[in-house]
Amino acid sequence: MMKTYTVKYKDQVIAQSNDIIEDCGTIYFPLSSINYKFLEKSTFRSSCLFKNTAIYYHVKVGKEILENAAWTYPDPDPEKEEIKDLIAFVDELLK
Fold first, then answer.
1. Over residues 30-37, mean pLDDT
2. Does residue 93 sit in helix, strand or coil?
3. pLDDT band at 49, cuts 50/70/90?
4. Do residues 89 and 68 touch, judged by C-beta distance below 8 A?
5. What single string gives the DSSP state of each residue in 60-81?
6. What is the DSSP letter of 94?
7. 3-state secondary structure at position 34
8. How far apart are CA 25 and CA 38, in angstroms?
9. Dihedral angle at the C-alpha atoms of 78, 88, 32, 66, nearest 10 degrees?
10. Which domains does the chain have, with CATH numbers?
11. Strand ranges (DSSP E) for the chain?
């Protein structure tokens, strides 16, 4: 039986799936498992030598915001193609 991974913030389910990809200890969720009403695009970007540029999102529930708590690699290095367009979250949100 596959484990179901859940991302929660302020008692709200932000993402949930058993169809995840784990890369370097980070859990990546498919886009279909994301509740986008809780994500707000951030202007923050970061760069990884192996994954290229990450685009970040704030997780927002009501007036509570966890800044830059989710990220995705829309154009990863070809060796990391399996994480393309998947979304990862900070560990503290994984349940």
1. 97
2. helix
3. confident
4. no
5. EETTEEEEEEEEEBSS--GGGG
6. B
7. strand
8. 24
9. -140
10. 5-93 (2.170.150.40)
11. 5-9, 12-17, 21-23, 26-29, 39-48, 52-61, 64-72, 87-89
